[in-house]
Amino acid sequence: MSGDDGAGDTPRYGYTDEELLTLPTVYRDGLFAGKVALVSGAGTGLGKATALLLARLGAVVAICGRKAEKLEATAALVSAVGSESLAQATNIRDPEQVDALFDAALDRFGRVDYVVNNAGGQFPQPSLEIPLKGWNAVIDTNLNGTWHMMQRAARAMAEQPEGGAIVNIVVPQRGMFQVAHTVAARAAVESLTRNLAVEWAPHKIRVNAVQPGPISTEGMNVYPPEAQAAMRASNPLFAFGDVQDVAEACVYLLAPSAKFITGEIVIVDGGLRLWGELWLAGKPGYFRKGPP
What is the pLDDT of residues 153-212, one digit of tens each? Predict the structure, then answer.
């Protein structure tokens, strides 16, 4: 997951593709046999691990992301575990591309049972310095893109007698600083999760979310070294979570284990929300010094 990769003190974040293929899971083989799952942002990190776990448990998977070559690598892993996939490069900001993605999945597999909305993006920066273009880009992806995916998923699931289940990936709303655009967008997604869980219940569509804390992925290197070092100490377990922690939480919410759960946020953060803080662009000196 993370630790010394053999190059001095340089940490290695995330898992290799070979490691992802054999990560232990608490779930039984064939749990999702005959089911179709769609995962966004599946070219890397949490989305990749979640798509692969669903495939290992018997689901066929549709995967999307911005970069076709990364999706192809994930599709190869899905094939390696004996499942089938549809990989389609998609900009979730564009409703027409989202429609095309779902049309392709429905044409190929005939149904969509589960959707995991993982795709998103952010950059760490003090809020006084965030440019309008950057703010709008993050809001458009993390909020509007997630909405496009949710609405299109629900339209498909409402036509299915069994309905379906949606899981949204959100972020901590306490103790996470210098990503104001992300916390704003994902807070809105949390509200949508709770609101639509009620509105879409007549269609047998469950809507839940997973809220990860500091998780070791290859994307960790976007943060400055100081922030990387602080992440491990941001929770009382003094540890990083890994992508399988999040993938298994998603599986729990999709599987029959959560048949009576909707509108909930499952928190996978090692206790960050109770105790710690994340300054993703470096902790300001004001908070280092403490009270005068």
Answer: 999 999 999 999 999 999 998 889 999 999 999 999 999 999 999 999 999 999 999 999
- The SS3 of residue 254 is helix
The amino acid present at 126, given as its one-letter code, is: P
What are the sequence ranges of the domains in the chain?
27-222+239-269
Distance CA 204, CA 197 (A): 10
pTM of the model: 0.94
Block residue for tokens 């966004």 = 40
Given CATH 3.40.50.720, say whether it is the number of domain 27-222+239-269: yes
Contact at 8 Å (CB) between 50 and 16?
no
Q: Please state, in angstroms and rounded to a whole number, the distance separating the CA atoms of residues 152 and 159.
A: 12
**Paired tokens of 13:** 């974040």
Concatenated DSSP letters of 107-162: HHHS---EEEE---------GGG--HHHHHHHHIIIIIIHHHHHHHHHHHHTTSTT
Q: Using the predicted structure, report yes or no on whether residue 89 has a pLDDT greater than 70.
A: yes
75/54 Cα distance (integer angstroms): 12
What amino acid occupies position 199? E
**Residues facing residue 211 across a β-bridge:** 267
Tens digit of each residue's pLDDT (9 = 90 or more) over 7-17: 445 678 999 99
